[in-house]
Amino acid sequence: MVGRIGKTIAAAAVAAVIGLGTTAPASATLLTNGGFETGDFTGWSVSEVFSFVGSGPQAPPSFPYAGPKSGTNYALLGQIGNAGTISQGISDTLGKTYSVTYWLAGVGDSPSYFDAYWNGTLIAGSDRTDFNSAAVYQKFQFSVVGSGSDVLLFHERDDPGYMALDSVSIKEVPEPGTLAMLGAGLIGSIAARRKRKARA
User: Fold this and answer.
1) Considering the entire predicted model, what is its pTM?
2) Among 151, 161, 134, which residue's Cα sits nearest to residue 51?
3) How far apart are CA 156 and CA 151, in angstroms?
4) Highest-scoring range by mean pLDDT, 1-10, 18-27, 116-125, 183-192
5) Which has more confidence, 161 or 149?
6) Is the pLDDT of residue 55 over 60?
7) Which residues pair with 36 in a beta bridge?
8) Omega cis (within 30) before 61
């Protein structure tokens, strides 16, 4: 009987640990105004003349977007003639892994391009020239490593029109070892309790 109870408790403990892994609250973003909800580029350093923060749908042909990906506002990037940038510096932890996420929409204007840099180094896979023609947001997510003080920079050009950027975030990636240690501790505690009951 004790053995059955012990197995049931152990199974419940393992399930609880698995549950923690899937329902743990997401860490807060390290960026300021990643959704441009201030209605401007507050928190960002901007070198662009032809870009602005808008809200709601924008009339075609220059603004063929249904509106923000989330919230009320989003950035419309349309630097002409040369590359423009928006960037933001953050404080993070040396050696920690972070997830950089953003949503981007473009219509394939020519010339147009967009890419992301982490401390001056191109984030592999972020360079885009093949935008879809439906102006539909696409999610981009990349892993980067913190150095203690880092800069995320977006580099773009869109002469004929604009591209839309929204919901930018940088979040710490939880370490799987933390949950594994918690599970091992619970299972070890249950095993010790079973031994005590068996001796009684």
Assistant:
1) 0.74
2) 161
3) 16
4) 116-125
5) 149
6) yes
7) none
8) yes
CATH of the domain at 147: 2.60.120.260
Whether residues 61 and 82 share a domain: the answer is yes
Task: Please give the tally of structural domains in the chain.
Answer: 2
Distance CA 185, CA 81 (A): 60
- Which element (helix H / strand E) includes 115? strand 112-118
Region of residue 115 (left: phi > 0; alpha: psi -120 to 50; beta: else): beta
Directed axis angle between helix 2-23 and helix 176-199, to 10°?
170
- Which of 47-56, 64-73, 100-109, 184-193 comes out lowest in average pLDDT? 184-193
Q: Is 143 exposed, middle or buried (0-12, 13-18, 19+ CB in 10 A)?
A: exposed
Token pair 């696409």 is found at: 138
The token pair at 157 is: 């050009």
Q: Which residue has the higher pLDDT, 64 or 139?
A: 139
> What's residue 134's pLDDT?
73
Domain of residue 13 covers 2-23+177-199
Could you give the CA distance from residue 70 to residue 67 in angstroms, rounded to a whole number?
9
Residue 37 forms part of a structural domain: no
Report yes or no on 96 lying in a domain. yes
Contacts of 123 by beta carbon, 8 Å cutoff, 6+ apart: 100, 115, 116, 117, 142, 144
Q: How far apart are CA 67 and CA 178, in angstroms?
A: 40
Q: What is the dihedral of CA 105, 108, 110, 113, to 10 degrees?
A: 40
99 located within any domain: yes
Over 50: is that where the pLDDT of 86 sits? Answer: yes
